[in-house]
Design a protein that fits this description.
alpha/beta, six-stranded parallel sheet, globular
């Protein structure tokens, strides 16, 4: 009998985002263990100079190696935060798109910039670059951050070659896509104080504005995929006693937000077939 025939749960491959690390899953991991879901944590923190396609190749190698170690050949679920979603999509839609060697049941993206990032564009805007980077330094971008030297930031710009490849490839019909985002309908500044509770967004004419329909870093429109419904988890009156505080619904904290984690776990616990 094969390992997957006796395994109760499908393994979850966890992919962190840009300027992040596998430690963002430290609150989700115990929930996965309690549900007997194997957690495979992909770590690309050592690939600081790599671009998105190179990291996608590394993700493929990690999945293959972990499969062999676990003796598992069945499907996997992919849970990604932020740019980690684009990395996983590049693997499954561009590199493996036609061959479909990778067996994936569902891809769950948390706050993903699926259509590119207006914030990445702002990093290159001569008039606002210094202001935006200054606000985010130490919170979302590292000290001394230089977008010209960051290949992932270059790849996540809406007009980049990587984003164009993802648009051309499209989603795979053999994979179920889940997109989990948040919003700030209460217009609470505490949601993401650095931007007064709003999220930067780029208009069709190239100008920038701000919206409460986002997580402070990624507007919901950037997360949307054709034919895929957004799971919009609203902070609402999140200052109450039954929900986490408003700041826990912003982009940076989403993988540790208990409401988001419950939604992820709900999807991962769906019957294998």
């Amino acid at each position: 009998m094969n390992r997957e025939e006796t395994q109760e749960r499908i393994p979850a491959v966890l992919v962190h985002g840009w300027n992040s690390h596998p430690g963002i899953w430290n609150r989700l991991s115990p929930l996965l263990a309690g549900a007997e879901i194997p957690a495979w944590k992909f770590d690309f923190t050592g690939m600081r100079d790599a671009d998105m396609p190179e990291i996608a190749e590394a993700l493929s190698g990690y999945i293959d190696t972990t499969r062999r170690t676990a003796g598992y050949t069945g499907p996997v679920d992919i849970v990604c935060h932020s740019v980690g979603t684009c990395i996983a999509r590049y693997l499954f839609e561009v590199l493996d798109g036609e061959a479909r060697h990778e067996k994936v049941r569902q891809l769950i993206g948390i706050g993903p910039p699926n259509n590119g990032s207006a914030l990445a564009e702002l990093f290159y805007d001569p008039g606002r670059r210094a202001e935006i980077i200054g606000r985010l330094t130490g919170v979302f971008v590292p000290e001394g951050f230089d977008p010209e030297a960051d290949r992932i930031v270059q790849d996540v710009r809406p007009g980049s070659a990587v984003m164009q490849q993802l648009r051309s490839a499209g989603t795979r019909p053999d994979i179920t896509y889940r997109v989990i985002v948040t919003a700030n309908p209460g217009e609470l500044p505490a949601f993401f104080p650095l931007f007064e509770g709003r999220t930067p967004v780029q208009a069709g004419d190239g100008s920038y504005t701000a919206t409460f329909d986002g997580d402070g870093i990624v507007p919901n429109r950037e997360s949307a995929l054709p034919g895929v419904s957004l799971d919009i988890i609203s902070s609402g009156d999140a200052g109450g006693t039954t929900l986490p505080p408003p700041g826990q619904f912003c982009h940076i904290h989403l993988p540790r937000n208990p409401v988001v984690m419950d939604r992820v776990l709900e999807y991962l616990c769906l019957p294998a077939k």
